[in-house]
Amino acid sequence: MAADTPDDFQKELVDLFVQEAHEWLQNIHVALDELQQGPAPERHTKLIQTISAGVMNLGGSAATINLSDVKQASFGAIPFIEALQDPQKSLSVQDFVSLCKQLGQIHAALTRATGISFEDDGNVATVEEVDANLSTGEFLRALQGLEEKRFPSIASGRNLIRNLIEQMEGQVQAGVECINATVIQGYVARVSEAEESFLKEIDERVPEIFKKMTALKMDGGEAASRRMALETFLQDVARLRSEAQQVNAGSAMMFFTGLHSLLTVVAQHRVHLAATRVESVKARLQVMSGAIRQWVEHGRAQRVAIDQLLPASHS
After folding, report:
1. How far apart (Å, rounded) are the C-alpha atoms in residues 306 and 164?
2. Closest CA to 252 of 192, 209, 294
3. C-alpha span between 259 and 281 (Å, rounded)
4. What is the pLDDT of residue 55?
5. In this predicted structure, what is the pLDDT of residue 284?
6. Dihedrals φ, ψ of 311, to 5°?
7. Spatial separation of the C-alpha atoms in residues 56 and 32, rounded to whole Å
8. What is the pLDDT of residue 50?
9. Could you tell me the CA-to-CA distances from 255 to 184, 233, 268, 290, 298 in Å, in that order?
10. SS3 letters for 71-93?
């Protein structure tokens, strides 16, 4: 029996690599599909780990059998994965599109290197499949029409549609002709989750803040109680300021920043506010709570309108 030649051995290595590559790519795309839906932070982190492990395995294995193009395309995905790794970050459509396009580069490199069409693999979502759902230009025009007809001006300052328009304009300028509806839906879902979480914090913490405002009127004989109340008061306001910043609620962030500054002065210099001043702060907080609720309601209406622009299978 003739001994195996180096070419035979290399072919066996490539065949084994192809089998593994199919599995890694399938895991990557399944994780990416779920990631686009805006999962909980803990799940988000696990999905990123799955995607990272997949591309690292692809790149590392490709390097061992001298498939340099596959190695470069795989490791080239790492910066795009890192752009998605923070579950607290407001991820853009561009973040997902960039990774999807790089995965397409991996598919193409694998096909060239192995002679096996990864583009047609039924178990792996190819870049053409990823991008086939929506025409970027048509979706941009639909968003512009929606803004003009139904949301010409947003009194609350909430304009998710305008944000999406700007992102789509960037995609068109970059030459991206198609975009996956799931990417859009995932982005909208993440925005929704963040805003609803912010409103929940407002509903839970503002009533507690009202109760603690009595500490601002305590006299010197109640210094210990006043100090403790102010400390928790400051923590609550700082938390709301942070939440407002995460959802880009500009007016709310400015209000809570100002309130935090006022409370810091009161705590550090042991200032006692007049009852009328305390009532004024409470009234402004009440108004801001209502404005935040309206801001979230406007966001809900815009999300419903955007969802109606997407293909029925994704709505």
Report:
1. 9
2. 294
3. 8
4. 93
5. 92
6. -55, 150
7. 15
8. 92
9. 31, 15, 20, 13, 20
10. HHHHHCCHHHHHCCCCCCCCCCH
| Domain locations along the chain | 1-130, 194-300
Burial level of 281, CB count in 10 A (0-12/13-18/19+)? middle
* pLDDT for position 315: 45
How many other CB atoms are found less than 10 A from the CB of residue 202?
A: 21
| Distance, CA of 213 to CA of 66 (rounded, Å) | 68
CATH number of 194-300: 1.20.120
- The CB-side HSE value for 242 (13 A sphere, CA atoms) comes to 9
What b/e string do you get for 91-126 counting C-beta neighbours within 10 Å, with b at 16 or more?
bbbbbbbbbbbbbbbbbbbbbebbeeebeebeebbb
Q: Helices (H), strands (E): how many in the chain?
A: 12, 2
Distance from the first to the final alpha carbon of the chain: 61
Q: Kindly give, in sequence order, each residue whose CB lies less than 8 Å from that of residue 44, ignoring residues fewer than 6 positions away.
A: 35, 87
Nearest Cα residue to 12 out of 55, 71, 65, 58: 65
What is the model's pLDDT at position 126? Answer: 40
Total Cβ atoms within 10 A of residue 188 = 21
* Tokens found for residue 226: 């006043």
Q: What is the pLDDT of residue 132?
A: 41
Residues of the chain predicted below pLDDT 50 = 1-4, 120-132, 155-156, 313-315
CATH number, span 1-130: 1.20.120
